[in-house]
Structures are given as C-alpha cells and as structure tokens.
Amino acid sequence: MPELPEVETVVRGLRPRLEGRVLARVEQHCDALRFPLPVDFARRLQGRRILSIKRRAKYILAQLDGNEVLLCHLGMSGRMVVSNGDAGPREKHDHIIFTTETGDQIRFNDARRFGMMDLVEDSRVSEHRLLRDLGPEPLGNEFNGPVLAAALKGRRTPIKAALLDQKVVAGVGNIYACEALYFAGLSPRRQAYSVQGGRAECLAAAIRQVLTRAIAAGGSSLRNYVQADGELGYFQHEWAVYDRFGEACPECDCDRGRGGGIRRLVQSNRSTFYCPKRQR
DNA sequence: CTACCATCCTGGTTGC
DNA sequence: TGCAACCAGGATGGTA
Q: According to the model, what pLDDT value does residue A71 have?
C-alpha cells in the first residue's frame, strides 16, 4: 500500500524510537506473512541492537549489530504502530511486536498479510532476491530523464504499467504513478517506448516532484494507514487525479459533469485515474 | 524476452 | 438490516 513516500514517512517515524535501541523483547504471532518468516525469527532478534534504519524502494532495512539486516515490506495494509508500551492488549492482526529496552513498543499490524520480513546477512543485502533487481531510487542522483528513457526503450507496454515495474524505477506505486503521469501530461495508455527525450525528462521530473511533495506532507493516509508516530499524513488532499473519478481536474474545471472530468480505467488489474484533456 | 492474468488475505463500502 | 459483490496501497509466478 504504502508507496515510497509512506515508507519514507514510517522510516522517519521509527528512527528516533529505534536507532540505538535494543530489542529487549520480540513477540511473533504468526508463522508467515507474504512469505514464511525465518526460522527462530523472534529469538534471533531478541537482544539485538538496531544501529540504523534505511529505506530502499518500499523496503525498510534495519541494520542490526552482529552484521545482520532486518528487511521489512509493508505490503498493501501493513502498519508500524508505535507506543510507549501502553498500547493495551494485542489487537487483531498485530503479528510482530517489538519492545525496546526503554519500553517503547512497535507493532507490525497487517490485515492482509501481504507484507514481509526477513533477516539477512548485511553483506548479502543487495543480492537479496527481492532487492537485487530494483531500479534506481527516484530521489537519488542516479535517476534522471536519460536513465528513465533507457529503461523504457523498446518496451511495448502502457507507460502506467511500466512505472509500476520496480525494475524501471523503485518505489512508485499506483497512486504516484497516476499523479506523475498527470503532471507530465502523458496519457497512461501511451506506449512506454514512446517516452523518450523531453518526455522522459519531464516524467522523471514529475516523479521526483510528486514524491518529494508527498514526503513533505507525511505521505497519504489511506483507510487503514497511520504513520509511525500516529500522526496522519495529508497528501491525499493534494491528489490531482487519484481516486477523483468524475471530478474536475485542477487545470480544466470546465469539463466537470456531462461525463467530463477525471476518468478511471483499469490497466493490469489496477485503477488508473487521468485527465483525458491534459494527458496525451 | 515480454506482457497479461490470477493470486495471496482481509476488511470496508456499495448496492440490492 | 442482511448479504453478496466488488474494491483496495503490492509483487510474484505462471502462462501465452
């Protein structure tokens, strides 16, 4: 669910609570999320110190002492719920509960269990099967128009579908793919290979801009999503097209009603929202 | 190689 | 009010 801005927001919320802290107690209440959890998962984490927390694409990476990394993905519905240990009894779908030596508690709650966690030797993190094929970080220096153009070259798939491919660019999901295409003025149906040169430059800039703005807003709070410190992100109020079927696009108010305004279509089984007038 | 589809699982919303 | 159908932020693996 959470896309790059939401995961970045979670990471920033977790850092002050977890960096430098020891996992005094780890409770595991299920055997598998999206994948089976490692053998002895909770026991192996118990007593370990978290040295730092990073994000790569939509993954959270907690560097532990003893040269291991705790790798987490929130899937569609995963949340990290933070408390001072006064959160009360375990709630439905609280699968993993971390308690630090200072008494803070982080609960991984995931109704749909599409999330994942794994424990990996740190020298092998970049070779992990879920990380090794990821494309460039869209907010990193390695991402720009020519890099995006090269990734899209020859690809005979709609540009919307290509943006959801984590090999093209890492961390963009359904919401921000729709938003970036809107700001770049590109139709979600346009063939990916046709996004070259100036169009690729424009799209790369739109991706960076929309992600940056979303992070500044604390991400988008969706139905079941709360950021790590319990505060609600508010970027959902700034969506130009996502989940706004039938509404006027911010730039062409005139088309509202009469079947005009923002349209919805289904691509690769996912909803796409766009303005047919501004996006070609 | 590439592209499309179903699938994992649960819950909230919509419509009859 | 009850219940069924449909929809949802992701990502993989199989098939064509």
A: 95
Tokens of A174: 């359904």
Q: Domain A145-274 carries which CATH code?
A: 1.10.8.50
Say how far apart CA A194 and CA A116 lie, in whole Å: 35
Q: For chain A, give every domain's residue range.
A: 4-127, 145-274
pTM to 2 decimal places: 0.94
Q: Determine whether A168 is exposed, middle or buried from the number of CB atoms within 10 Å of its CB (0-12, 13-18, 19+).
A: buried
**pLDDT tens profile A185-229:** 999 999 999 999 999 999 999 999 999 999 998 888 755 455 555
Tell the CATH topology of A4-127: N-terminal domain of MutM-like DNA repair proteins (3.20.190)
Residues engaging strand B (CB under 7 angstroms)? A 34, 77, 92-93, 111-114, 154-158, 161, 192, 223-224, 268-269
Q: Which nucleotides of C are covered by protein (CB under 7 A)?
A: 7-12
Q: Which of A180, A159, A173 is nearest to A59 (CA)?
A: A173
The residues pairing with A72 across neighbouring beta strands, listed in sequence order, are A60, A117
Active-site residue, A36 included: no
